[in-house]
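Hi R.,

Here's the chain you asked about this morning:
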Amino acid sequence: MTKTLQPYQSVHALERGLRILEILSENGWTKPSKLAGLTAIDRSSTYRLLNTLITAGYVVKRDSDGSFALGPKIGLIADGFIQTDLAAQIAAPFIDKLTSEISWPSDFAGLIAGEVIILESTHRVSPLSMHRAMIGKRRSLVHSSLGQAILSILRTEELDTVLSLATRQGGPDSAIAASRPTISKIIREVQQRGYAAAVAAEAGKRMGAIALPIRAPNAVIAAVNVIFFQSAMTTDEAARRYLPQLRQCVDDITEALTLARPIHHSGTLNEPPPY
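And the predicted structure, written out as C-alpha coordinates:
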Protein backbone atom coordinates (compact mmCIF):
# COMPACT_ATOMS: atom_id res chain seq x y z
CA MET A 1 0.00 0.00 0.00
CA THR A 2 1.42 3.37 -1.01
CA LYS A 3 1.84 5.84 1.82
CA THR A 4 0.76 9.41 1.31
CA LEU A 5 3.63 11.80 1.86
CA GLN A 6 2.85 14.40 4.51
CA PRO A 7 4.03 17.98 4.00
CA TYR A 8 6.89 19.12 6.21
CA GLN A 9 5.92 21.28 9.15
CA SER A 10 7.17 24.84 9.29
CA VAL A 11 10.17 25.61 11.50
CA HIS A 12 8.73 28.37 13.66
CA ALA A 13 12.07 29.64 14.97
CA LEU A 14 13.32 30.06 11.38
CA GLU A 15 10.11 31.84 10.37
CA ARG A 16 10.47 34.26 13.29
CA GLY A 17 14.14 34.86 12.56
CA LEU A 18 13.35 35.66 8.93
CA ARG A 19 10.59 38.01 10.07
CA ILE A 20 13.11 39.91 12.18
CA LEU A 21 15.41 40.23 9.15
CA GLU A 22 12.50 41.56 7.07
CA ILE A 23 11.66 44.21 9.68
CA LEU A 24 15.30 45.28 9.99
CA SER A 25 15.50 45.52 6.20
CA GLU A 26 12.45 47.81 6.16
CA ASN A 27 13.29 49.94 9.22
CA GLY A 28 17.06 49.96 9.66
CA TRP A 29 18.36 50.37 13.22
CA THR A 30 15.57 49.16 15.53
CA LYS A 31 15.39 48.51 19.27
CA PRO A 32 14.33 45.06 20.52
CA SER A 33 11.14 46.39 22.11
CA LYS A 34 9.99 47.81 18.78
CA LEU A 35 11.07 44.64 16.96
CA ALA A 36 8.99 42.56 19.36
CA GLY A 37 5.96 44.71 18.66
CA LEU A 38 6.39 44.75 14.88
CA THR A 39 6.95 40.99 14.66
CA ALA A 40 4.45 39.94 17.35
CA ILE A 41 7.25 37.90 18.94
CA ASP A 42 7.61 38.06 22.73
CA ARG A 43 10.58 40.08 23.96
CA SER A 44 12.60 37.20 25.42
CA SER A 45 12.32 35.23 22.17
CA THR A 46 13.25 38.37 20.23
CA TYR A 47 16.49 38.69 22.23
CA ARG A 48 17.32 35.01 21.71
CA LEU A 49 16.74 35.27 17.97
CA LEU A 50 18.79 38.45 17.74
CA ASN A 51 21.64 36.80 19.62
CA THR A 52 21.57 33.85 17.19
CA LEU A 53 21.54 36.18 14.18
CA ILE A 54 24.43 38.22 15.60
CA THR A 55 26.47 35.05 16.16
CA ALA A 56 25.80 34.02 12.55
CA GLY A 57 26.81 37.46 11.25
CA TYR A 58 23.43 38.48 9.83
CA VAL A 59 22.66 41.15 12.44
CA VAL A 60 24.81 43.71 14.28
CA LYS A 61 24.18 45.61 17.53
CA ARG A 62 24.85 49.29 18.17
CA ASP A 63 26.10 49.58 21.72
CA SER A 64 25.33 53.27 22.06
CA ASP A 65 21.55 52.74 22.15
CA GLY A 66 21.05 48.96 21.99
CA SER A 67 19.55 49.04 18.48
CA PHE A 68 20.01 46.31 15.89
CA ALA A 69 20.48 46.35 12.10
CA LEU A 70 21.32 43.97 9.27
CA GLY A 71 24.93 42.82 9.23
CA PRO A 72 27.38 42.58 6.32
CA LYS A 73 26.77 38.86 5.83
CA ILE A 74 23.31 39.69 4.48
CA GLY A 75 25.09 41.22 1.50
CA LEU A 76 26.53 37.82 0.58
CA ILE A 77 23.01 36.44 0.24
CA ALA A 78 21.77 39.48 -1.69
CA ASP A 79 24.71 39.30 -4.09
CA GLY A 80 23.73 35.73 -4.92
CA PHE A 81 20.28 36.89 -6.00
CA ILE A 82 21.25 38.74 -9.15
CA GLN A 83 19.07 41.06 -11.17
CA THR A 84 18.51 38.49 -13.89
CA ASP A 85 17.09 36.06 -11.30
CA LEU A 86 14.58 38.67 -10.24
CA ALA A 87 13.73 39.63 -13.81
CA ALA A 88 13.14 36.00 -14.81
CA GLN A 89 10.86 35.39 -11.84
CA ILE A 90 8.86 38.51 -12.64
CA ALA A 91 8.55 37.69 -16.34
CA ALA A 92 7.61 34.02 -15.94
CA PRO A 93 3.87 34.35 -15.21
CA PHE A 94 3.40 36.87 -18.01
CA ILE A 95 4.99 34.78 -20.74
CA ASP A 96 3.14 31.73 -19.37
CA LYS A 97 -0.08 33.68 -19.82
CA LEU A 98 0.96 34.67 -23.33
CA THR A 99 1.58 31.07 -24.37
CA SER A 100 -1.68 29.95 -22.76
CA GLU A 101 -3.46 32.44 -25.04
CA ILE A 102 -1.64 31.76 -28.32
CA SER A 103 -0.14 28.23 -27.80
CA TRP A 104 3.18 29.18 -29.46
CA PRO A 105 6.29 29.24 -27.25
CA SER A 106 7.81 32.45 -25.95
CA ASP A 107 11.20 33.41 -24.50
CA PHE A 108 12.23 36.20 -22.15
CA ALA A 109 15.87 37.13 -22.75
CA GLY A 110 18.16 39.67 -21.12
CA LEU A 111 21.25 41.54 -22.23
CA ILE A 112 24.09 40.22 -20.07
CA ALA A 113 27.72 41.25 -20.61
CA GLY A 114 26.90 42.15 -24.19
CA GLU A 115 25.15 38.87 -24.99
CA VAL A 116 21.51 37.84 -25.27
CA ILE A 117 20.66 35.08 -22.79
CA ILE A 118 17.30 33.34 -22.38
CA LEU A 119 16.28 33.80 -18.75
CA GLU A 120 12.80 32.26 -18.88
CA SER A 121 10.89 30.29 -21.50
CA THR A 122 7.56 28.57 -22.15
CA HIS A 123 9.01 25.95 -24.51
CA ARG A 124 8.55 23.39 -21.75
CA VAL A 125 4.77 23.91 -21.71
CA SER A 126 3.96 24.91 -25.28
CA PRO A 127 2.32 22.15 -27.33
CA LEU A 128 3.96 23.65 -30.43
CA SER A 129 7.57 23.68 -29.25
CA MET A 130 10.38 21.55 -30.65
CA HIS A 131 12.50 22.21 -27.55
CA ARG A 132 12.28 22.01 -23.79
CA ALA A 133 15.52 23.07 -22.07
CA MET A 134 15.96 26.64 -23.30
CA ILE A 135 16.82 28.64 -20.17
CA GLY A 136 20.45 29.75 -20.20
CA LYS A 137 20.81 29.40 -23.96
CA ARG A 138 22.32 32.25 -25.92
CA ARG A 139 20.70 34.00 -28.87
CA SER A 140 22.41 35.91 -31.65
CA LEU A 141 22.67 39.62 -30.99
CA VAL A 142 22.33 40.48 -34.68
CA HIS A 143 20.40 37.60 -36.27
CA SER A 144 17.73 36.71 -33.68
CA SER A 145 14.54 38.66 -33.12
CA LEU A 146 15.42 38.95 -29.42
CA GLY A 147 18.83 40.41 -30.19
CA GLN A 148 17.55 42.83 -32.79
CA ALA A 149 14.77 44.01 -30.45
CA ILE A 150 17.35 44.72 -27.74
CA LEU A 151 19.63 46.56 -30.19
CA SER A 152 16.73 48.81 -31.14
CA ILE A 153 16.41 50.33 -27.63
CA LEU A 154 20.07 50.77 -26.70
CA ARG A 155 21.35 54.27 -26.16
CA THR A 156 24.33 55.34 -28.25
CA GLU A 157 26.92 54.73 -25.55
CA GLU A 158 25.34 51.38 -24.66
CA LEU A 159 25.27 50.33 -28.30
CA ASP A 160 28.95 51.25 -28.67
CA THR A 161 29.87 49.10 -25.67
CA VAL A 162 27.76 46.11 -26.70
CA LEU A 163 29.04 46.10 -30.27
CA SER A 164 32.62 46.44 -29.05
CA LEU A 165 32.16 43.42 -26.79
CA ALA A 166 30.57 41.39 -29.57
CA THR A 167 33.38 42.28 -31.97
CA ARG A 168 36.18 41.48 -29.53
CA GLN A 169 34.64 38.15 -28.49
CA GLY A 170 35.11 36.93 -32.05
CA GLY A 171 31.96 34.81 -32.18
CA PRO A 172 29.45 34.40 -35.01
CA ASP A 173 28.14 37.95 -34.45
CA SER A 174 31.53 39.66 -34.58
CA ALA A 175 31.68 40.51 -38.30
CA ILE A 176 28.23 42.13 -38.41
CA ALA A 177 28.77 43.80 -35.03
CA ALA A 178 31.85 45.48 -36.49
CA SER A 179 29.82 46.94 -39.38
CA ARG A 180 28.04 50.06 -38.14
CA PRO A 181 26.09 50.56 -41.41
CA THR A 182 24.66 47.03 -41.11
CA ILE A 183 23.74 47.51 -37.44
CA SER A 184 22.14 50.87 -38.22
CA LYS A 185 20.08 49.22 -40.96
CA ILE A 186 18.91 46.46 -38.56
CA ILE A 187 17.88 49.02 -35.94
CA ARG A 188 16.14 51.23 -38.49
CA GLU A 189 14.11 48.31 -39.86
CA VAL A 190 13.01 47.23 -36.38
CA GLN A 191 11.96 50.75 -35.44
CA GLN A 192 10.12 51.31 -38.72
CA ARG A 193 8.36 47.93 -38.55
CA GLY A 194 7.50 48.31 -34.86
CA TYR A 195 8.88 44.92 -33.88
CA ALA A 196 11.88 42.69 -34.54
CA ALA A 197 11.58 39.62 -36.78
CA ALA A 198 13.81 36.72 -37.75
CA VAL A 199 13.61 33.46 -39.68
CA ALA A 200 15.94 30.45 -39.32
CA ALA A 201 16.06 26.83 -40.41
CA GLU A 202 16.12 24.19 -37.69
CA ALA A 203 15.68 20.41 -37.90
CA GLY A 204 14.36 20.76 -41.42
CA LYS A 205 11.75 23.36 -40.45
CA ARG A 206 11.75 27.09 -41.02
CA MET A 207 11.13 28.84 -37.71
CA GLY A 208 9.96 32.43 -37.46
CA ALA A 209 10.00 34.76 -34.49
CA ILE A 210 8.77 38.24 -33.64
CA ALA A 211 9.98 40.16 -30.61
CA LEU A 212 9.54 43.39 -28.66
CA PRO A 213 12.09 45.05 -26.38
CA ILE A 214 11.83 45.80 -22.67
CA ARG A 215 13.59 48.58 -20.84
CA ALA A 216 12.92 49.08 -17.13
CA PRO A 217 14.28 51.86 -14.88
CA ASN A 218 16.20 49.34 -12.74
CA ALA A 219 18.68 48.68 -15.59
CA VAL A 220 16.91 45.64 -17.01
CA ILE A 221 17.30 45.53 -20.81
CA ALA A 222 15.47 42.56 -22.29
CA ALA A 223 13.07 41.29 -24.95
CA VAL A 224 10.21 38.84 -25.35
CA ASN A 225 9.53 36.80 -28.49
CA VAL A 226 6.88 34.56 -29.99
CA ILE A 227 8.18 31.63 -32.05
CA PHE A 228 6.17 29.89 -34.78
CA PHE A 229 6.53 27.59 -37.78
CA GLN A 230 6.83 29.45 -41.07
CA SER A 231 4.76 26.67 -42.62
CA ALA A 232 1.87 27.77 -40.38
CA MET A 233 2.05 31.50 -41.11
CA THR A 234 4.26 34.23 -42.47
CA THR A 235 5.97 36.78 -40.25
CA ASP A 236 3.44 39.44 -41.24
CA GLU A 237 0.58 37.10 -40.37
CA ALA A 238 2.15 36.29 -37.01
CA ALA A 239 2.49 39.99 -36.27
CA ARG A 240 -1.15 40.65 -37.16
CA ARG A 241 -2.34 37.78 -34.98
CA TYR A 242 -0.07 38.00 -31.97
CA LEU A 243 1.53 41.44 -31.73
CA PRO A 244 -1.26 42.86 -29.51
CA GLN A 245 -0.87 40.02 -26.98
CA LEU A 246 2.91 40.24 -27.17
CA ARG A 247 2.78 44.00 -26.58
CA GLN A 248 0.48 43.54 -23.59
CA CYS A 249 2.86 40.93 -22.17
CA VAL A 250 5.83 43.30 -22.57
CA ASP A 251 3.89 46.18 -20.99
CA ASP A 252 2.96 43.99 -18.00
CA ILE A 253 6.54 42.81 -17.51
CA THR A 254 7.90 46.35 -17.81
CA GLU A 255 5.47 47.61 -15.20
CA ALA A 256 6.31 44.76 -12.83
CA LEU A 257 10.06 45.30 -13.30
CA THR A 258 9.64 49.02 -12.68
CA LEU A 259 8.11 48.28 -9.29
CA ALA A 260 10.85 45.79 -8.39
CA ARG A 261 13.89 46.69 -6.31
CA PRO A 262 17.11 46.99 -8.36
CA ILE A 263 19.73 44.35 -7.66
CA HIS A 264 23.26 43.64 -8.95
CA HIS A 265 23.64 42.74 -12.62
CA SER A 266 25.29 39.47 -13.69
CA GLY A 267 24.71 36.27 -15.66
CA THR A 268 26.05 33.14 -17.32
CA LEU A 269 26.70 32.25 -20.94
CA ASN A 270 25.88 29.24 -23.10
CA GLU A 271 26.04 28.30 -26.76
CA PRO A 272 23.55 30.03 -29.13
CA PRO A 273 20.64 28.20 -30.74
CA PRO A 274 19.99 29.30 -34.35
CA TYR A 275 17.04 31.67 -34.10
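The first strand starts at residue 59 and ends at 62.

Let me know if you need anything else.
M.
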